[in-house]
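Problem: given the chain below (507 residues), write out its structure.
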Amino acid sequence: MISCRDSLGGSTVQGRVEEGVLHTPVIVLAHPSCEGSSRELENCSADIAQEPRILYQKPKCSKSEKIEDALLLECPLGEMLPSLSDYKSSLIVLTVQNWLLRLSADSGEVLEKIYLTGSCCKFRYLSWDIPQELMVVKSAQNKLPAAARQAGIQQSVLFYLAVFQVLPLSFIGMLEINKKIFGNSVTDVAVSNGILIVMHSMGLVRLYNFQAILEQFMEQPFDLGHEFNWNGQVGVVGKYPFGLPCNIKITDIPPLLFEASSLENAFQIGGYPWHYIITPNKKKHKGVFHICSLKDNTLAKNGIQDMKCCSLEPDWIYFHPDMSGRIIHVGPNLVKVLKLKEVKNNTNQMEITEDFTVMANRENCVNNAITVTASGRVVKKRFNLLDDDPEQETFKIVDYEDELDLLSIVAVTQIGADGRAHLDFHCNERGILLKSIPLLESWDVTYSHEVYFDKDLVLHIEQKPNRRFSCYVYQMVCDTAEDDECSRHEKTEKVFCKKEGRIFEYI
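Solution.
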């Protein structure tokens, strides 16, 4: 699945809430309710008992050592690695001074240290080309100082991309995105699944074969830690002050794979056979999604999806991350799961059909245009409630847990100053509600919220004003009521065993 959106300050590849990405610099605090600030990797705690214990604590760092972005790195299965430390989870972090560090996730120890480059650019973003295999480090957009622009000096290089293979960490190459090659209207770039995505100011999105670019325009390969002589510079690859050479020079426009025009550069590819989702490049079409065949650009039957919701927050759509080829369309009060299927008697055309729909619980919500008071006076409302009015149950977050094959939905209702939320687990195949869990903490809709669900853990991160964060952790446990019912006539002796500070119960 490929997805992109123009962010003007550096590409945001939609789907970063995915495998291998550390979204905030705060490691999970393992207490049901704990508050903290956004210090970079200062304190790490482990959920071992009722109270958390500190795994390690890093000293406070200066602004020059600030961490800009980070990725979680997991050991590949079935491969021989050069170092024992490679078999444990680690963090790849990018600092403000263009240092790329690999830290042990268990101890915070610096395992590897790579200097990217000098003052020519500032690297700011980490992303996966291929998750847990190929990593891309992207610079912020290059901008000339005001004095240079006033003097008429033109800036042709917009972005730099450095590409690494991970575990073992090895340098593949660095390239530049140049306006002379890709055009003056380029605003952003992203790399995903072997595709270079170039976004333009007029809503145009162009796709190129990134792997072919690396192979075609590679001038000379370099290995980390080896001496090099490059354009008159002599140094060590990845060491200060030389950093990494820009050894991939794109001298001509690469072959174009595909292009499409979409509002705000929103563009996604997925499904089977391959389809893409765009919004027509006009503001009046905001909230309208077209699902088209990647092969011949034909619109699928029922391929125009318009939820027609009246809300402050727009609805959103994306290909289902379970790789089933389905599509999830989320609005304020309903979640539609759509699927692609062949049109009857026409195998060359696909149609969009509804697999299942999840509706918000709004049975008690009555939005009458006319109200009669106790005295008999008729009052007419001049406006209707929005579909995402906070006093109505509204869907805020939809996520998928692949190991349990569950679709999780966060629904929020706020009455007065008190907001309440619950997390619902639905069968991913049929949409049947399996379990609803109320979140104990209050949910303020004016704050930013993120909810992550992985195996038996639910993590709710709330960002308050002044960059204050609250973190709430829930762990799902087996409901033993049925087991107790089955074994109520059996008397068994319970044995307790204490290991490493944890108490285990055996029957």
